[in-house]
Write a structure and sequence with these properties.
Elements lengths: L5 H14 L3 H13 L4 H20 L5 H18 L13 E6 L7 H12 L3 E4 L6 H11 L3 E5 L6 H13 L7 E5 L5 H7 L3 E2 L3 H13 L1
Parallel strand pairs: 1-2, 1-3, 3-4, 4-5
Helix pairs in contact: 1-2, 1-3, 2-4, 3-4, 5-9, 6-7
The structure holds 5-hydroxybenzimidazolylcobamide.
The site of 5-hydroxybenzimidazolylcobamide (HCB) has 40 residues, from helix 3, helix 4, helix 5, strand 3 and strand 4.
Length: 217
């Protein structure tokens, strides 16, 4: 029989809390994990994997929409504790980024993680929320003089709105003014290339690296 280390045990407990939609349990266990020396990012990574598993079960009709809602709520409780614990860089502003979830899509957990990690990495982040129109993305980018626009789509049905965003910015003759990065569950590097985005990132850690490179260019 495999003996679990105490770190593995607490991560298993946190997984169980999420799968049982136990908001009180996850608060206690996430605090415990941090006190035991696990990093916020390690815990977020495990929880993000759980959210994907929950989504897969929903797709196989093993779970209902209410399950997704409860899981989303419990994930947010955990993130309230974890996101402020991401180590902060003492850099002066590395650049300005306007970020949001695209029109028609209300999934914002992943986008919130990317926002928090960018802030911690020294970027000035303007998070404009979810279900955001192309015109609102551009309006905010113009207002704050952003360097980068980051957009998130979690559904195959809302991915085309990412292309609409890029086409809208092109139509306003402002495409060269902004670097555009896209991401979210169904989005791929190939799709980013196809619709003319500047970059794609699979997760928040990659998003930071990619955006740092875009800013250097
Ligand atoms: Co939702 N949902 N959902 N959902 N949902 C998905 C997305 C499905 C894939 C589940 C499935 O069927 N397998 C599916 C979409 C299928 C498709 O592609 N067509 C789906 C569906 C169908 C729906 C509804 C239509 C269900 C219904 O009403 N019948 C509805 C949509 C409503 C709407 O948007 N108009 C719906 C609703 C919900 C909620 C509200 C119950 C809840 C969202 C809560 C919230 O976000 N506040 C929810 C949830 C929780 C999910 C799943 C289970 C988890 C999403 C999540 O938080 N993942 C999801 C399953 C899945 O994604 N596989 C399921 C965890 C985060 C950490 O990962 O990929 O979002 P992430 O973000 C990463 C990464 O992509 C990257 O960095 C992040 C951090 O590492 N990244 C970027 C993200 N954005 C980036 C932007 C950048 O520029 C760069 C990198």
């Amino acid at each position: 029989m495999k003996i679990l280390s105490s770190k593995e045990e607490i991560l298993t407990k946190i997984r169980e809390d999420l799968f049982n939609y136990d908001a009180e349990g996850i608060k206690v266990d996430v605090e415990k994990a941090l006190n035991m020396g696990l990093s916020a990012l390690e815990v977020i990574d495990v929880l993000s994997g759980c959210m994907r598993e929950i989504g897969d079960k929903f797709a196989r009709l093993e779970l209902f929409l209410t399950d997704l809602m409860m899981a989303g709520d419990v994930m947010k409780v955990a993130l309230e504790i974890l996101l402020p614990k991401i180590p902060k860089e003492k850099a002066v502003s590395k650049g300005k980024i306007v970020i949001g979830t695209i029109k028609g899509d209300i999934h914002d957990i992943g986008k919130n993680i990317v926002s928090a990690m960018l802030t911690a990495s020294g970027f000035e982040v303007y998070d404009i929320g979810k279900d955001v129109s192309a015109s609102k993305f551009l309006e905010e980018a113009e207002k704050v003089k952003a360097d980068i626009i980051g957009a998130s789509a979690l559904m195959t049905t809302t991915m085309p709105a990412l292309k609409d965003l890029i086409d809208y910015i092109k139509a306003k003759n402002l495409r060269n003014k902004y670097k555009i990065i896209i991401g979210g569950g169904p989005v791929t590097k190939e799709y980013a290339e196809e619709i003319g985005a500047d970059a794609y990132a699979e997760n928040a850690v990659e998003a930071i690296k990619v955006i740092e490179n875009l800013i250097k260019k």
